[in-house]
Amino acid sequence: MKTEHKIKFYPVGNADNTLIKLSDNTTIIIDCQIREGETDTNGIKIFDVKKDLLKELEKDTNKNHFVDVFVLSHPHNDHCQGFEKNFYSGKPEDYNDRNRKNEEIIIGEIWVTQQIFLNDLCSDADAVRKEVKRRKKLFEENHQDAHKSGNRLRFIGYNENDTTVDGLHYVPGETVNQFNGVTSDYLSFFIHAPFKEHLVVGKAEKDHNTTSIIFQAQFRTEKNGEARSKVLFSGDSDHYVWEKVRTITVGNNNEDKLEWDIFLTPHHCSWTFFNDTPYKDNKEPKDYALDMLDYKNANADVIASSVEIQDNDANPPCFQAKEEYEKKVGKSHFRNTAINIDKKAPEPIVYIIDDNGFTFLKAAQVATSTILTSPTPRAGRIC
Asked: Is residue 250 part of a domain?
């Protein structure tokens, strides 16, 4: 059977929502932005992310939709809107007919940073925090259910005392290939950030974006095989963070962890990846930001998850940032979620990864794509 994986970048305005679906039906959602209504304030049709997720996600033994891992890069509204209404919180065994009627998605394992415990979070981030606290308490009490799907939790980075807890934390420099209790033959995440210094409470409160989770995803099509595609995710991280990521990674002889075939632009194609804002005061991109983009592989793509990018003073998205990305990959390899297929009713940007690497699916291909059959159920899928 041919091994194929799928990545979807949803059109959600100046926000992020990405789905990874592996050939064994493992699913990972990175950030969420599930909006209500038919159109936005500009008359653009709002893509129904929830409806599409329900089509893509598997069902557990109780026939409830679930995702193996939900990664919250950082608790800003543009990265978690719709969480409270569309994802289930609470004991998995308490999922009831009301939750089922609302088609709430059960999360096998949640990934967050210590920043989830800061004050003054948006309402959806508060909902994430409540669920994280429930799961954290199970772990701290050494409860027998703490490591069951629907209760699993991971903190990315260090805690408030610059320390970690075995079995609860993943830190920069670590490679992770276990998702919702199952070791993957097909996917691994190399954790780049957040760093200790950015998780200090005072600094984190001043600049939440610097605490974003940054990681490189490597996709394989066979066990212990070579990576067929590499994708970089980084939330809303800025050029200061990326300078440190590059310096540390090169210093540790891990330059392959900086390589990318697909690069999701930080902060929705903001100028902050290249220099400080506003652009009019800092027009020269930093050398290390440009050097970071040179880790691209052949025919690499840049994705801007943002509204349509226009030549104006907006930031994000920033027109001049778009131009810098295009200098590196070419105009045909820069993709904006807001104008994919139809700018009045945009569709997700979809890639297939197989033995030949990654392939961008055009409109007709997306409509007819039927990949990912249902293999033998994996362990750890009972929620």
From this structure: yes
Domain that holds residue 202: 5-368
Burial of 336 (C-beta count, 10 Å sphere; 0-12/13-18/19+):
buried
pLDDT of the residue at 162: 80
Greatest alpha-carbon span in the chain: 57
Is 381 part of any domain?
A: no
> Where residue 207 falls among pLDDT bands split at 50, 70, 90?
low
The rounded radius of gyration (Å) of the Cα atoms in the chain is 20
Residue 52 CA, chain-centre distance (Å), reads 17
Query: Which whole number is the average pLDDT over 316-339?
Result: 98
Q: pLDDT at position 205, please?
A: 47
Which amino acid is residue 237, in one-letter code? S
The predicted-structure confidence for 65-90, as pLDDT tens digits, reads as follows 999 999 999 999 999 999 999 999 99
| C-beta separation of 9 from 50 below 8 A | no
375 occurs within a structural domain: no
Looking at every residue in the chain, the average pLDDT score rounds to 92
Return phi, psi of residue 54, to 5°.
-65, -30
Is residue 362 in a domain? yes
Burial class (CB in 10 A: 0-12, 13-18, 19+), 56: middle
How many domains in the chain?
Answer: 1
Q: What pLDDT shows up at residue 364?
A: 62
Confidence check: pLDDT of 91 > 70: yes
Residue 54 near residue 164 (C-beta atoms within 8 A): no
CATH at residue 217 = 3.60.15.10
Which tokens is 9 given?
């970048």
Strand 296-304 with 187-193, pairing = unpaired
User: 258: closest CA among 222, 305, 225, 218?
Assistant: 218
Residue 373, class by beta-carbon neighbours within 10 Å (0-12 exposed, 13-18 middle, 19+ buried)? exposed
Segment 37-60 shows an average pLDDT of: 96
Record the pTM: 0.94
Judge whether 227 and 216 are in contact, CB under 8 Å.
Answer: no
Distances (CA, A) of 283 to 319, 320, 329, 357: 12, 9, 20, 35
